[in-house]
Design goal:
The structure is a homodimer.
Chain A: H1 14-27, H2 40-47, H3 51-64, E1 67-70, E2 74-77, H4 95-103, H5 108-118, H6 128-132, E3 143-144, H7 157-170, H8 172-175, H9 185-199, E4 208-211, H10 214-225, E5 230-235, H11 239-247, E6 251-258, E7 261-262, H12 264-270, E8 274-277, H13 291-302, E9 308-312, E10 337-342, E11 354-357, H14 360-369, H15 379-390, H16 393-418, E12 425-428, E13 435-440, H17 446-455, E14 458-459, E15 461-462, E16 477-481, H18 490-501
Parallel strand pairs in A: 3-14, 5-6, 5-8, 8-9, 9-10
Antiparallel strand pairs in A: 1-2, 4-11, 6-7, 10-11, 12-13, 13-16, 15-16
Helix pairs in contact in A: 1-3, 2-3, 7-15, 9-15, 10-11
């Protein structure tokens, strides 16, 4: 009769040990397909262990397919001839034995992650595999004019913590109740009210669809509008958009801008159905599309069935002078505009909450065709944000941030104007959003300037790098993304630029 | 004043009758948008019913979006011009008028959601627009055997709240620092260690990619593996998967199962490149794919370049007897398996955190091609969950849940066996996961049984409804999803089934 020693079971329980012994014998072909195993009772008696132990081992082997049972006959070895030939049958090559080895090194993971988070100032801790992708051959520079990160001092931690506490205490049932596919009703209502009060946008909450970041929403929109459509993006523009279309294998055209925004004749010629644009504050040029061009674009959309505008309003909250620019959504009478906005700019880039507003007919289609998707934003954050908006904290926060950014921008511009850089620099489009354009008089190429800056510890991007098709007169313009720039780094950033230019 | 007859309420309760009367009047435009309804007290007195009855009817109508309440003012008819054409409407269809009505009342939102969440047992509160999708013509039934919701008593609120507080105090810099595209390193390390300790899976944290729900990860995987690939799903299977492929316009084949799982010859014939499967606990049959079939499937994947298996391990943590079934990922020597798991089953369906494990060559490709995507899970929840796993709470929680579900399953099965249903019922596949199959001896069709059950207040799904291609011998089998079933509803659920069958 089959027998195994229980003298050295290591850290295994008796049942685990028996399970492994039998499995190894099956893998090693010491037990052959169809072979009958001892009855539980006999086997237990023979091995000096309890029947339960044998029972558990058999049950596990049955559930994994190594054994099968025949009622009133007993337990038999399964046919495992399909197992890959060439693998080391018999010598413990299975997952289970592997994991045994792994159990000895317990502290590894923690120390790894500890190390990764020691480096406070880097944009993102990089894993080994990501480094392979070639994104981080240099140590991250200490000064970053390309980052959209939130300064830790700006996130409203204390009020947020208070609201999280309240939600966890008072909304427990809501927190574990699946929300509608479009998101938590309370949040969508709060957003609708906020939009009405502060952006003059009138929408019903059911037109608002929440998503974990705008990138996710673009993907949903492709599914909603169609993979067969041709999408158009602004050139220059926010590069990620075109990459998302490319990764979804949909046709994508790059439409040049003129001084008023997207060029309508080029758009018409492109054969595009859907135009993605940021009319209130174009990235990276900072351009605001004037009302006449907005109507021209709406006219383009209205001229054919299936045309659509995706209005990306990503940082309209931070317009520095005057009122916010009215959204195209609010002057759209033909239901052609999908409006997208995000809380990653106003709260923190690491809070993944965005939303889109669908015109009625698209909202209908969304509920008909895509409502099987679960909302991608966790309830916990949706309720916290809803309360944050409802109790007025969001508006207060935006005002505080606006004035903080205003002050920082003024300081930065003032310091540039007082520096040795001044005679070589022009500042453009500084009235809206969280970046402006710095034009430098220099003979150096854009690539060369960015390279030298990085060498000296300053990361800056050239406007020209945001063009898909090169245009003339766009060289020597650099994007100054100041939202994440600590004030104490301003002087050093200017000094580095001076050193390169002069 | 509005009045209704209660002389013929059929099988409806008073509250259901009243609810239907008012709803019909709203749909028929006998009650107009903005019209005020009688106060609960007056209405109750007038109709000769209790205030509670009116209250319940109003609450149901509010939660479905037919009414809204204004604190200290009363109850008003919502603008329902969004409802589908063809059903009695045509006026007021613009966004502006709708939202105007919606914004006059300040308290709406809160009371709306409050009402919606009073109903513990419903799967999801539906907005008006979602109703258009045809998902909720009846009031949600009180007993739901199709829900995957977390019972509020099971979410570890106190430890979660404590960890959130700690993270908000101690990890502020990390919270606002953009994580790598794959997710927060600390969380991925914690998951890697957990998988090693409890699932015998050996992976490096950089192979783990976090995402806001598995649905999002499927979409990422299509981008990673290719829109030109042919995807295969299990038939029967979890219907959402096929819908996601369909919505992405990629070729999708339904592969029949035999008694060991996915049928390899059919798979071979289908021309598929990628197979999506749940080998450890198939939904809905409960089947565990035995080891020999697992190797056959791995063999299939290894036979051609570009083939791949997506192993969905969605509720392996809740295997009731024996150890968890080893993952296919852990016996995959050819780097052909993508492993997917989620915390929506183990924590709460409203916590949107899932992850996938990519084999090295796919992880490399992911970082090369898709690392421009931001991680869709908010840092706040990633850090909280990381601490939850690291300090052992997750393992404790799973054990507690497992024993809770075990107990509930045993009670449910015991009660079925002791009931009048027993002679008509066979229970299958009750050893794993959070559902089992109830086979009923009946002459009624599956559709008829589900319809009658719903009428009596019980939502249950037939196994046959999960088949893309009808197969023989699958009728009269019903899926009992007991995770969200309150114990106090067990008797009533059995009673309803008895009533239908006997």
């Amino acid at each position: 009769m089959l027998t195994y020693s229980f003298s050295d079971t290591g850290s295994d329980s008796l049942y685990q040990h028996l399970y492994k012994c039998i499995k190894n014998d099956i893998l090693a072909r010491n037990l052959r397909a169809g072979e009958k195993l001892p009855s539980k009772r006999t086997f237990a008696k023979n091995l000096g262990i309890s029947v339960i132990t044998v029972e558990n081992a058999y049950a596990q082997l049955i559930s994994e397919g190594y054994l099968y049972s025949v009622p009133k006959k007993g337990f038999f070895v399964s046919d495992i001839s399909m197992l890959p030939s060439g693998t080391a049958f018999g010598q413990n090559s299975t997952a289970r034995s592997l994991s045994k080895a792994a159990f000895s090194q317990n502290g590894t993971v923690r120390s790894l992650s500890g190390a990764a988070f020691g480096q406070n100032s880097t944009a993102r801790p990089l894993s080994g595999a990501e480094k392979q992708a070639g994104t981080a051959n240099l140590p991250s520079p200490p000064i970053d004019l390309t980052s959209n990160q939130t300064d830790i001092r700006n996130f409203p931690f204390s009020i947020w913590a208070k609201l999280v506490r309240e939600v966890l205490n008072e909304n427990q049932q809501e927190l574990v109740t699946n929300p509608p596919c479009g998101g938590v009703w309370e949040l969508r209502s709060a957003i609708a009210r906020h939009l009405k009060d502060f952006r003059g946008i009138n929408v019903a909450p059911e037109q608002i669809i929440m998503g974990a970041g705008t990138e996710y929403l673009y993907s949903l929109l492709i599914q909603l509008l169609g993979f067969d459509k041709t999408y158009a993006v602004e050139d220059p523009g926010y590069r990620k958009i075109a990459r998302i279309y490319e990764k979804h294998k949909v046709a994508c055209r790059h439409i040049p801008l003129d001084e008023s925004g997207v060029c309508v004749s080029a758009l018409e010629k492109s054969g595009a159905d859907v135009l993605h644009l940021s009319p209130s504050h174009h990235f990276p040029t900072g351009l605001v599309t004037p009302i006449s061009r907005r109507y021209e674009l709406l006219g383009w959309a209205a001229r054919a069935e299936g045309r659509c505008l995706i209005e990306d309003d990503y940082d309209s909250e931070f317009r520095m002078t005057g009122n916010p620019i009215p959204a195209m959504q609010s002057i759209d009478l033909s239901e052609k505009v999908v409006y997208i906005n995000t809380f990653t700019k106003t709260l923190a880039s690491t809070v993944r909450i965005s939303y889109m507003i669908l015109p009625r007919h698209l909202a209908d289609r969304f509920y008909r065709e895509l409502s099987f998707y679960s909302c991608t934003v966790s309830n916990f954050e949706q309720y916290t944000l809803a309360h944050f908006i409802e109790n007025g904290s969001f508006e207060k926060h935006i005002n505080r941030m606006r004035s903080y950014y205003h002050k920082k921008r003024d300081l930065l511009i003032q310091k540039i104007r007082q520096s040795e850089l001044a005679p070589h620099a022009i500042i453009r489009e500084e009235d809206a959003g969280l970046h402006f354009i710095l034009e430098l008089r220099t003979g150096l190429s854009d690539t060369e300037i960015c390279r030298r800056a990085l060498q000296k510890g300053l990361r800056i991007a050239a406007l020209s790098s945001f063009y898909a098709q090169m245009a003339s007169g766009i060289e020597h313009r650099f994007i100054v993304n100041y939202s994440a720039l600590p004030e104490e780094q301003i002087d050093e950033a200017i000094r580095i630029l001076c050193e390169i230019i002069t």
